[in-house]
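Methods — Computational structure assignment.
A single polypeptide chain was analysed. Its primary sequence is given first, followed by the predicted tertiary structure written as structure tokens.
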Amino acid sequence: MIATPAENWPVSDAEFAATMDLLGPFESSPRLAVAVSGGADSLALTLLLAGWTAARQGSLLALTVDHQLRPESGQECRQLGVWLAARGIAHRVLTWGGPKPETRIEARAREARHRLLADACRVQGIFHLVFAHHRDDQAETLLMRLARGSGPDGLAAMPAMRELSWGRLLRPLLAVPHQRLVATCRSQGQDWIEDPSNPSSCHARGRLRAVSAALSREGLDADSLVLAARRAGRVRAVLDGQVAALLAASVEAHGDGYLWLDPGPWRAADPEIRRRALARCVTTIGAPVHPLRESVVEGMCDRLLAPDPPGGATLAGCRILWRRGRWLICREPEALAPPQVIDLKTGFEPGPEPGLEPGGTRALLWDRRWWVEIPPDWSDAGLAAVVVGALGATEARQRTVVGGANGPPPVVAATLPALRDGAGVVAVPGLGYCRAGVTMPRCRFRPPRPISGPAFVVV
């Protein structure tokens, strides 16, 4: 009798549970969402998660994004729904509607997918979104980052856990080969849908798969690449811990979207840790779309540590100002997003940051950092539409800051979100102002990346 190779063994419930334990802790009755495309990888993950949540009296929601890029995508989503319903797994399809971009379609589709998935989790109050990235994906990611000349962080490839403003992304399968996930589906009698774009040479991952055999002969097989990524990940985890310690010692963060930086601990820190910490601060406050260039951040660190520090500077959508022996890092007014309109009768048109909440509460993400929720009674108060935008310097000077000297500095107050109608300012939640007769809206600082979180998690 010939033994089955280990790479063709299904993933057992016990093995999967051991990996999930590394990504905990979870609630006593955990609620999870899983991104499922219909392929063998994501379906295997869904089956494993269904068993894992059931054993813990939890719940699982499968989320599928229909990008509407292929004529058959709708039918595939329906077929997937039939399969999942037969197993008692809740399923929702999220549609990327509207006209599609003519350039960077793969990147734009990925951005839309992550946004739709995150919004669905936030609305449902689910804090854990699980992806089926596996060992072979991790190896390809490392190769792609090598080709781009990535530094140590990039060579760590994908983390097993990533904290965002609304919750966590989990990748429990990064050490599991694709073939084992296929075997998992087969062991449970589960069919799957083959994505025709996977082997395509139009995309970088497809081209890498076409030459994988040649790379393996040179020692660059999936196992060796993932081992290299794991080692880089351990180094990154150590650096992340040192950065977190420096941030804790030197940064005073405020929920109004700004922070104070004490230069004392900063000067004593290692230059690499200092650079990483400054990048974290700027990324949180400025919410830049693209990663910061290391050389630019290093140059700013040098400026901030000069014997005669500059009065102010800008970096990635942030202003960095010297105030009474500390650095103030806040939003740059010129980089603020334009105002957005909310029709209180119909909601607003779906766009890059949609949000019509259940129960009549309208919500949107403004300036990539502020989650604004408008209560239902605003319509009852005769408001038909409101505009969400920056308060501005002139009106900031006219408003009384709640807390007096403890309120945000004037340069920060000018960048806070204000809600206006035709008669003027209706509310500035950050300053505690609201027009009489309406309920104060909720306004939460929700940047794409928190200033600090757990160290890089390696599975």
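Note: The chain has a mean pLDDT of 84.
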